[in-house]
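Researcher: I've been going back and forth with a colleague about how HTH OST-type domain-containing protein might be arranged in three dimensions. Neither of us has a model we trust, so I'd like an independent prediction. The organism is [Clostridium] hylemonae DSM 15053, in case that matters for your notes. Sequence below.
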Amino acid sequence: MDEQFFALLIDADNISAKYIKPILTELSKYGNITYKRIYGDWTSTQHSKWKDELLTNSITPIQQFSYTQGKNATDSAMIIDAMDILYTNDVHGFCIVSSDSDFTRLVSRLRESGKLVIGMGENKTPEPFRKACDKFTILENLLNEPVPGEEEELEETEELHGGLRGERIEDEIIKMIIENQDNNKQTGLGEVGSRLVSLYPDFDVRSYGYNMLSRFLEDFTRIQLVKKGNFMSVTLKEDKGMKEDIDRFVLKLVKEAGKDGIELSILGNRVYEKYKNFKISDYGYSQFSQYIKSLRSIRVQQDKTIMKAKYAD
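Model: Here is an independent structure prediction for HTH OST-type domain-containing protein. You can compare it with whatever you and your colleague have in mind.
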């Protein structure tokens, strides 16, 4: 694979100097950093900690005076430079480091021009900027240890995003598995990872305390990892005992309905009433009718405009 070149543009106004080494390490995974620029008013004491890092890490400071109070001149300077670099066409991608949503349109414009855009920012970064990027990395995840005084903020963020998004992520993975099953395809671990990043550019297993996607997925209750040779697939985890119980219940209802059979809608309601936690997707089906058709001794027939399940003698 050809080497990829990136332009790193940092907004010093809302990014702490403590992140610089993790930022450079993380971006180096994607390719070679050919532009390293940081923007701010260097006459201000606010950026004193950054000044110590500039020479050490060969970062070019771009001076931008705050001409008008309340206006962010740094944003404008970064945007102008990004467009200048874009038109030189000598980089494959950009890394925009900021926790400010003002760069959302810039990111969209760079991607429209076919450039890969990696965003980096703190947990407080607004959703529009995160989702505009090809990949967004939360800077707190890059630190080896929590920063003193920020533990409470991190816990609140995990409470807001961790649990809820964990469930949502599992739901999305199950959709992927069912979609692939309908097309007679396996769902590889790599596919799951790439599709999750496409759905959620800020998805990062480090947000949940893991360093590998496989370990993150192992803790989900409805999916499992299966390794065959060098290929790791993600499949649905069946509760065989419960499924056998449901199968017997369905067969009993269909038998009791006699030769006329039972409407699928009525059958479905009876199943869901008895088994409150029953989810058809947990068994690899996207429709209730698919599940019924999979059962031996039961056939599904169209009776005028109504679908019925009948016992096959």
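Researcher: What would you highlight for our discussion?
Model: I'd start with this: The chain has eleven helices and eleven strands. After that, consider the following. The chain has a mean pLDDT of 83.
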